Amino acid sequence: MNLMFSRRRVLGCMGVLGGSLMFPRWLLAADSDDLRQIAKEAWIYAYPMLMHYQTMEKQALNASAPEYVGGFNRFRHYGELFTPSNRDIVTPNNDTPYSWAWLDLRSEPQVLSVPTVPDDRYYVLQLVDQYTHNFAYVGVLSTGRDAGNYLIAGPDWQGQIPDGVTAVLRSETEIVMVLGRTGLKNTEDLPAVRALQQQYGLRSLHDYIGSAPPVAAPAIDWYPWDSKTGLGLEFIPALNQILSLCPTQPSEQALRARFARIGIVPGQGFDPATLPPATRKALLAGIQDAQAQLQAAVSQVRTTLGLFGTREAMDGNYLNRAVAANVGIYGNSVEEAFYTGTRVDNQGQPLQGGRSYRLRFAPGQLPPASEFWSLTLYDLPDRQLVANPINRYCLSSRDRLQADADGGLTLILQNATPAEQSNWLPTPASGAFTLVLRLYGPGQQVVNQRWQMPVVEVVSA
Fold first, then answer.
1. Strands (E), 216-336
2. Confidence (pTM)
3. Where is the DUF1214 domain (predicted)?
């Protein structure tokens, strides 16, 4: 998830960038410490939006990318299980096969339709704006199991709500990502999951009501994304285009005015090559400060509490929003799912292949989840699934796990095959690894931090 841009050109929302490549006169003589601090704040603010843009570039803009979903306003469903050979995303999970869509709401809303689902089926459709806020949900925990039609509208839409619409879901931004997750019970359940995915529908509003299409929005000359340079000074022109699709919110007016002092203005051109040396040095120093701050914060993360949510839930904590994008962009809000895990054992040592461990949940202390929970192992530093003889990459409450005599549950984490395999999660023969515990429909004791994942105990080194 480290990205950047290379080519420099003037771009724009709605086709062209407004403004020029000229810098305000005061920028040439501005205090370097002030420029450095603003650049630091702006980079932290921009980071998750840039990561989001990188994903959009692959999925909605670049038809040659393997992640391409087909453009805007259509679903691509993934009905296969992840294996160690799938390396498109980090920390993949096999709990919930994905459905992806990107919506362009500039000309009109889109209508998301979902079917009725049975009581034993979990699904959720997560709606994410360009700030990476989870601004709405459709699914069993948020809207129930009944069929429905949800009108997804951009910030400026003022039309009439048609008959048959269950609810209007309003985005702050013109581009919206929809990430669907459909609960998978086991490999034999894949056909049922695929059948359900095909019932998730997207229609333009004019198709839904049977009217003539509106005037199409102008084509956008999207900023070229380059993972080698985009997190350097080129983050500014990239952010300028992104913000041109994101109307300024009242809570960010002062922040946007401050960022404008280093050339961050929606739709405005910015060429880092023309910066005076002293200004360039100050801005680069601010970016380095921001990157160091982000990595320090990431190293302290133990759970996803406070990392994902609505604008109101995030409450202006831009560092947490950046941390979320770094450790696992598009995580669910805590009301929907909770993620925790560990990279160390009970002795404070990194989890290491070749050693034997156990993870025991005491009686009455199983992960509190109304839907289900899972524990998945990933290698480090890549955070990918690890090949093993039985092709088992996670353990879940949906598996036939063997309880302890006292009602607790002990999971075996080792490379060697144990005599009893029901509770065995194979580990690599060597190398560091990490564990991620996911709870779908977490209990209130999770939200209140009255429940914690137990430590991983060393059995033998």
1. none
2. 0.90
3. 336-443
